[in-house]
Every structure is written in structure tokens, then in C-alpha cells.
Amino acid sequence: MGLITTKNLERFANGFAAKAAKIFAKITDIPQSLPANGGNAATVNDHYVNEDVPSGAKFTDTVYIHPTTEGYKHVPSGGVTGQILRWSAAGTAVWGSDNNTTYNPMKAATASAAGAAGLVPVPAAGTQSKFLRGDGTWQTPANTTYSNMAAASANAAGRAGLVPAPAAGKHLSFLRGDGTWSEMAEATDAEIDAIIAGTFK
Questions:
Q1: pLDDT of residue 111
Q2: pLDDT at 15
Q3: pTM here?
Q4: Residue 39: count of CB within 10 angstroms of its CB
Q5: What distance in Å separates the CA atoms of residue 62 and residue 52, rounded to the nearest whole number?
Q6: Residues 6 or more apart whose Cβ sits within 8 Å of residue 77
Q7: From the DSSP assignment, how many helices (H) and strands (E) are in the chain?
Q8: What three-state secondary structure class fits 93?
Q9: Bridge partner residues of 107 (DSSP)
Q10: Residue 174 pairs with which residues in a beta bridge?
Q11: Which residues of the chain, if any, have pLDDT below 70?
Q12: Which of 100, 106, 135, 176 fits as disulfide partner to 118, beta carbons 3.0 to 4.6 Å?
């Protein structure tokens, strides 16, 4: 389908408005109007509303008791700098020292053995443009030169590559599979009619 314009959108609106009118014509209980102030009622569920609370009234449902079962316990008091919360029992935590704070450097992989997780090795000065390889060294990737994409044709597939540079004036164009920048054609009346009718493919 081609590009949808303002003219197309007007055809959409008119087409779907006609459908909506047919749907609502089948519904008989829609009110024709509402009161200017939105309506009013003396009671809601048999209870009077918009009345002052009696003097001295006590509300008995505002006292909150925090549960003490698993998943509801507060953070325990105490603790000092450097400590963490550790498991003590189901739903209970206590302050304690973090004993596992020493980590080894990563273990490099080889052609026949997998590496192991660990700290990244320190990059030396002058390696700011390099990348960490699986062998644990900082290296420059071997393949950093890329060619433009190869266009597809009616009987041959294209090839991945860099997007060709659009020329000046092509800012509203789209890249096609043949490698050219082209503007989309405007949708036809027949296509719009098919979308409204639900038969567009």
C-alpha cells in the first residue's frame, strides 16, 4: 500500500463513522442527554451522603496492626557501616559482615578450554580503543572495514552492508531493497476503500 495522505484520512473517518452509526443504531438504552450538573442523588447504596460527621464520632477501622508473619517483618535495628542483611530464618534477617569481597581476575579461554568469570584485566595506557578478547587480552578487532550493502534484484538476493548515503533532497525518501532512495507512492482510492471494507491484503 502507498503513502496515506490527509485526503485518505478523511475517507477513513467517513467510512468508519458510517459503520459506527450502524452499530449505535442497534442499541436502544443509550440516554439522549444528561443533566447540566451531571445529576444528583440523595443516597448511595441506601446511605445518605454529603452530611456532616457527628461530633465525637470515633472511627474503629483506622487502627493498623502490621503483620509479623514471613514477608512482613521490618528491617531489624542496629547494624554498622559495612554490614549487610543476612538470612537468619524464614522471613527473618540479621545484620552481619559481608565475607565474600575478594574476587579473582577472569580466566582466559583457550581453543580447548573454557574460561571462568572474574574481574576484567586492567587495560594499559594507550589501549582505550581496544576491546577485551576471550583470551583475556585487549586487542583491536581484525575486521573493521565494511562495504556498502549489495542490492537485491528480481532473481538474486542482496547482501548486508553499510546503508548507501542519501543525496541532498532525499530526506523524505525510503531505502528500497534495490539500494535506491525512493518516495512512496500515494495510496489509491481503491486501496483506501479496501481498508475500510476490511478486504485489503
A1: 94
A2: 80
A3: 0.33
A4: 7
A5: 19
A6: none
A7: 2, 8
A8: strand
A9: 116
A10: 182
A11: 1-3, 26-53, 59-61
A12: 106
